[in-house]
Amino acid sequence: MSEIIKRALSLALAHAHAGLQQSLGLSGLGRMAIARYDPRDNTVYPLVSSGMEAEFFDHMAMELDRVPSLALLATGTAPRVVDDLREGSRSGIMGAELIRLGFRSSLTYPLWHQGRFQGFLFMDSSQPRCFDEVTTRRLADVAHLFGSLLAASSAQADPLAAHG
Questions:
Q1: Extents of the domains making up the chain
Q2: Which CATH superfamily groups domain 3-159?
Q3: CA–CA separation, 39 and 88 (whole Å)
Q4: β-bridge partners, 36
Q5: β-sheet bridge partners, residue 63
């Protein structure tokens, strides 16, 4: 993917991040990130992020077979909401890192476009239970938009892969 396209996605994500903080009152929304799926190696690669720098995640490729919760999420269109990262045993190493960075709740949307899985949109908040049902429904449009943008950017980067 060209740096120009990556920069455009980064700017779109930053604008969406700021807009969501204001328009939906999500002041605790400290980080948003997009990860791109590559079906050739069944791996999700960090692409762009906005908000708190989270080096742990920004350079971490994840083979879907090794992260069962994401692999399951990638089979459908429903988001995953974690109301409080400190509760339960679902956190794992990634949840532990989110907690260390001060995040308390998390929302992950699988990104789809025209029936093809594109990647994930991650949203992390410093407030527990930030992503209630109404907020999650409103954020679905943002996820659809980024699924389309990710598909378009992938098509620009590799036209043959986009059709195949």
A1: 3-159
A2: GAF domain (3.30.450.40)
A3: 31
A4: 45, 119
A5: 43
And the tokens for 90? 């679902």
User: Over the chain, what HEC string results?
Assistant: CCHHHHHHHHHHHHHHHHHHHHHCCCCCEEEEEEEEEECCCCEEEEEEEEECCCHHHHCCCEEHHHCHHHHHHCCCCCCEEECCCCCCCCCHHHHHHHHHCCCCEEEEEEEEECCEEEEEEEEEECCCCCCCHHHHHHHHHHHHHHHHHHHHHHHHHCHHHHCC
pLDDT digits (tens, 9 = 90+) for 4-14: 888 999 999 99
Count of positions (residues) in the chain: 164
- What is the per-residue pLDDT across 12-32, written as a single tens digit (0 to 9) for each? 999 999 999 998 889 899 999
